[in-house]
Design brief:
Order of helices and strands: HHHH
Keywords: Coiled coil
Distance between the termini: 155 Å
Largest sheet: none
Number of helices: 4
Protein name: GRIP domain-containing protein
Low-confidence stretches: none
Pfam families: GRIP (PF01465)
InterPro entries: GRIP_dom (IPR000237)
Shape: rod-shaped
Number of strands: 0
């Protein structure tokens, strides 16, 4: 019986050694996994810091662009009002010249330009001008003779 008992104890020791080895292997794998996860967390923090810096930079750029857009809008508005003022004065002078002289042919293109007529508006005005310059139109207005 004694030899059996020794063998039984040895088997138990071997079994416990196997259990301990498996546990040690499991703990080693867990420690490796923990180390890898810590590296992932550290990398994620680096990426997050870079993204935060990029976000802050983009916010600054957005603010700069917003201010530039507002400035550009004010400049365009000022230029438009300035141009309108000049065009109105110029238009008044052209209209007076149109009424005072017979140079209607030479002044019509000026009206096109100052009033920024599109192609359809130019065509309509040209049709009226042709009708008004026909001999029959002049006869009906009493200007032929």
């Amino acid at each position: 019986m004694f030899p059996r008992s020794a063998t039984s104890q040895e088997e138990q020791i071997l079994e416990m050694a196997l259990v301990q080895a498996k546990r040690d292997e499991y703990v080693t794998k867990l420690n490796e996994r923990i180390s890898m996860l810590k590296e992932n967390v550290a990398e994620s923090r680096r990426v997050q810091d870079l993204l935060c810096k990029e976000r802050d930079h983009l916010r600054e750029q957005n603010e700069i662009l917003r201010k530039e857009a507002a400035t550009l809008h004010r400049v365009e508005k000022f230029e438009s009002k300035f141009r309108e003022g000049i065009n109105i004065e110029y238009l008044k002078n052209v209209l007076i010249k149109y009424v005072e002289t017979q140079d209607h042919e030479g002044l019509i293109p000026v009206f096109y330009s100052v009033l920024e007529f599109n192609a359809e508006e130019r065509r309509r005005l040209e049709n009226v001008r042709v009708k008004m310059s026909s001999p029959w139109s002049k006869l009906s207005r009493g200007k032929l003779f």
